[in-house]
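For reproducibility, we list the full input for the fe (ii) ion complex.
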Amino acid sequence: MISHVTHLVSRFFGSIFAKPLTAKEQQVLNSELTSPLLELFDRLSVADQRHLYNVSRGISAEVQSMDLDSSEAYGLVVAGLFHDCGKVVSDFGTIMRVIATLYWGLLPKKLASMLSKSVGGLGVRMQQYRDHPRIGSELLIEADAPQIAATWAKEHHKPADAWTIETKYGELLKRYDDD
Ligand SMILES: [Fe+2]
Ligand SMILES: [Fe+2]
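The corresponding predicted structure, in tokenized form, follows.
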């Protein structure tokens, strides 16, 4: 429990003080991504862009030492870069994300779902925040992303035994995602 709270606190401050991508980092993405994916990345908050960029660079470095064909390697980098893109729809800032995480984490599921359906727009956004895996997957399909990226967006909060992507890829993607 203490390590979970410590992790939440460090995520909170990491998010508050997130640095925007530098021109050089943006250039890396411009050279790697298709226009629909660049447009999707552009819609994300600074904190999400920073988190996702850092995750993708760790993966990018590691896939270079693996024996993968270029489309497989690209799919893994895109999967890391967009796994949380579904959060764009709920559009919560850092404080509301902490509240939503506690809300869904602490309240019994049925009660939390029922309450969120009875409080109008905010409740809809709470649901959307919780549904960010499914929403992200749909956004990635619309943007014609590699299949593994759309699948990983949907599966990145699931336990390993529920993944449909290869376990070695799921483990790689998890290793660089600290949340
Ligand atoms: Fe997520
Ligand atoms: Fe993440």
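The radius of gyration is 16 Å. The mean pLDDT is 92. Both points were considered when choosing residues for closer inspection.
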